[in-house]
Design brief:
Elements lengths: L1 E4 L2 E4 L5 H7 L8 E4 L2 E3 L14 E5 L6
Parallel strand pairs: 1-5
Antiparallel strand pairs: 1-2, 3-4, 3-5
């Protein structure tokens, strides 16, 4: 299925947000996620389905000031 992840189109086989994170190589990283502009907390990723055409944002916190 095709998704837009961080403004880039990806062809993926994942069916949940957690599986997508693994498929894209983010597993184990401290990240924040959103689907179609709605924040998804880490504990909910395993049971959050993704569907064709969704916009996914995956961001890592930055240090600095």
């Amino acid at each position: 299925m095709k998704l837009v992840v961080n403004d880039e189109t990806h062809e993926v086989s994942a069916r949940t947000l957690a599986a997508l994170i693994d498929e894209l190589g983010y597993s184990g990283a401290r990240i924040a996620t959103a689907l179609d502009g709605v924040f998804v907390p880490a504990p909910q990723r395993e049971r959050t389905p993704i569907i064709e055409g969704m916009r996914v944002e995956i961001v890592a916190p930055m240090q600095g000031g």
